Structure formats: C-alpha cells, structure tokens
Amino acid sequence: MKLVLASNNANKLREVKQLLEPLGFEILSQREAGVVIEPEENGSTFAENSAIKARAVYNICKMPVIADDSGLCVDYLNGAPGVFSARYAPENQLCDKLIAELDGVSAQNRNAHFACVICYIDKNAKEHFFEGKVFGTIGFEKKGTNGFGYDPVFVYKNGKTLAQMDSDEKNMISHRANALKALVEYFENGNN
Fold this sequence. Notes:
Distance between the termini: 9 Å
Largest sheet: 6 strands, mixed
Shape: globular
CATH class: Alpha Beta
Mean pLDDT: 92
C-alpha cells in the first residue's frame, strides 16, 4: 500500500520508512508525490497540527496520507515546549535552551515525555488519529550523536539518551514508533 508522508523532514521520513517498509508499505515523501507546500501549523494540539498537514497534502495528491505532529512535554515547564517544540529555539540550540530552563531543577523534577499524534487520511478522505508516547527525564547535559532535536537530553528508563541509542533501539520505544504501531494495528485489523 502506498502512503504519502506529509513532511519534508528527512529524519522523520527515514524513521517512518524504517518502521513501515518492512511491513509492505511504500512510503512516498510529499515531494515524491508532487506536493510542494508547507502548511502553517497553527493548531493548539498535536492532533490539530497533524490534521492540518495531512489535509493540505491529501487535498493535492488525493492519495492516502499520514502526517504527524510531535513534541517534548516537560512536567516542570507545565508541558512546554509542547506543540512549540520545533520553534522553541533554533535547531542547534534546542537542547542548550532546555538545559538552561531547567538549571537548578533536581533530577526527580525533570520528568518529561515525547508525544506523537499521527493523522491518517484514508482513500475516502476519512481522518483517523493514533497517539504514541515515550516517558523519561531531561538530563543535565547532552549525550550521544544519533537522533535529532531533543534526543541528546532525553534520558529513557535504561539510562541512555535517545541520541545514545542506535536507530533500531530507538525505533522500538520512540513516541513515533508507538503511534505508528497503533496505525499498523489498525491496518492489521483489516482497515485501510
């Protein structure tokens, strides 16, 4: 089954392909599907933003589309940066800003989770939503060179940051992997 990923993010495309292609899905980037847009993500939730992206791409290509919106939610910061995760700071300063915001905060008060909501629009233009989360803490310094975004400071329960894990290990536990697993279960139950 062909699915268009409503994203121009190469890291996200790589993760989605690694998770879905072994299951028989052919994943096309929105560029490969002939869609060159960058819709404004002005929703107040991850679900709203994923639907905005999915609808914009679906309206052009008229093929099944998946779009996700995800972000980091830090308990001490009342869920921030949340839907503003990508715009919290320039890409190469995300971790540094977060570490600075949590300066002086003890280890037991640094709980956080990544959340991801996938909007799947089927061939009949019906929207379906799937959510995934991964829980951990925010470290005191950056560790690891894999991954992107906040991965170097997000510490999973195994004591490693997401950036210290290889892609196979991360894809077993990540918020996007968990949302995609829910989507795959939906397909495996005979839905499409």
